[in-house]
Amino acid sequence: MDPCEIEFIGEKSQIGIVPNFNFDPIHLISGSVGPFRAGLPVHIPLWLAVHLRRQRKCRIVPPQWMDVDTLEEIKEEEKRSKFFTKMPSDNYMVEAQLIFGCAAEDIPRCDEIRTIIKDIFDIRESKLRTSVDAFIKGEGTYAKLDNLTLLEMHAIRPILPHALDHISRYQRVASATQRDMSSLGLNTSNLSSSYHSQSRI
Amino acid sequence: MEQNVREEDLELSDDEELITAQKVLENLENAWLNEKFAPELLPQQTEMLELMLGQVAHMEENIKELDKNDFRSIAHRMELERIRYIIASYLRCRLEKIETFTKLILQEEESRADEEKRMSVEETKFATEYHENMENYFKTVALQYMPTLQRSDADQRIVRPNMMSHVFVKAKETVPAVVVGVEDEEVDLVAGSQHIIPYQLISDLVLKGSVQLI
Amino acid sequence: MFGDKAFELVKELQRTSETLPPFDDDGVRQVLEEIKAIFEENCQQAAAYSHSGDRTLWPLLSFRHAAIQRNKRCLLAYLYQRLQRIKAIRWEFGPIVPNDIKNSFCEPETQWFNSYSKSLATYMRSIGDGQGIDLTGDLKPPKSLFVEVRCLEDYGKFELEDGEVILLKKNSQHYLPRSQVESLIRLGILQHIS
After folding, report:
1. Which ipTM did the prediction report?
2. Domain DNA replication complex GINS protein PSF2 N-terminal: where (chain A) (predicted)?
């Protein structure tokens, strides 16, 4: 999946804006947005919010989780836990990138927040790389991936499924070989018997 | 004046059930993702497609009257571009599979009952023409010059998708006792959980809608 | 060595930086002739083998059979790969192919292209009960009807369709409707920032 498609999907997330204009509700196919009343917050899809912000017709309301203390807690949890913590948004990276790209001034302590989010992402990526490594070496073919976001899955998408396909293929061949050899009455005890392991990445 | 499509529920042809345009779009998006990641050709979501195309046409008519710089016009046009992208990407993805696995898909389709058919009438026509075009070409350029014994192995040339390739899935509902490995170990897929697993093992769940490919 | 020419066909195609090199008529013919020649030799020996039951002939027969298969496989790969590229040309250029590329098609390829082109067009037109969609467009997710631009020189006042007037000063940045500023971008007055 293309990075631009991941962004495309993430852009559907709802976000709060404060418009500086008035407008009646618009009945989009994906749901109604508005009414827009100058000075009053309203929730709209991110793709529309970015457009309005670029036109300087609104300011962005940072999502609740985009706050230094909340993010610090998440970062600590991420460091502490062997597993992936549930992120406050399934598209946290896409949202962060788009909001920082057009509305950095709307986010209090923006630079700090940017740094913490990057730190969290780095910790998760590094955990992912270690897990994938161990997973492939353990010859697993199945794993649970709870709390991984689309962007993070995308980072391993080319490698992991492909590597697993190869492992499966080798396992099937090994299985078949073992069967053939036993049917010929040959000793199979020194063939690997660790075919699989369930793991949680 | 903008016609009110918000409350207008669309009718599904078979049942008397009503469905909102919003839900149709959601279904189409899910179908798009499933098609992208599944190695095999999935059943076309023809009904959803036609409903959405209808909505798109309807909306385009509505906004024709509006000034291009009107915020409403801009918002709608932006959304319509997004929807058109999903539809185009969905159909392109299907065409790619049809062009890669033509012979296999045509064979499997023939053995399916009408309600189980995966290609639309138009796709079937395209697939048939594509296959014929290919066969004629190879015959003309090479096969007719080859010794008889070497020609008749069209079956050898059938391309199949790798059904055991790994996919990322998200469980939409809890599914107990799913086989996840070559040695038949079972796992319960809890609603909302995510996994990586060989496609073949959950292909029926994809068709049923119990899991979503991501 | 058997199969050399066939392999060369495939290699050449992979190596070339051209979208589509001219069809290698000679190369293809050579491979077909080689296949025929090997086959005829095998036929003679196969007859001898079934007569005499001489098993020492078997490896040679197998070898020739393998050589034929290899030739066939390389040849079909060459032809198939070219068709893939021709298909891509249809998706990129539409039904009318630029002359310099058209010259690389052999006659059967031209016919294949025309059939494919027609079939694709018919399919696209038929989508949604005759409504039709151009699947060769919309290749990337849409970004916006507006574009972010930087002004490269002191242009002065620019009036948008809705009456709004913008001051285009050197280095100023603006977010403007794509269709209205395309000409300024083309003239080099505005620069599109992605």
Report:
1. 0.88
2. 2-61
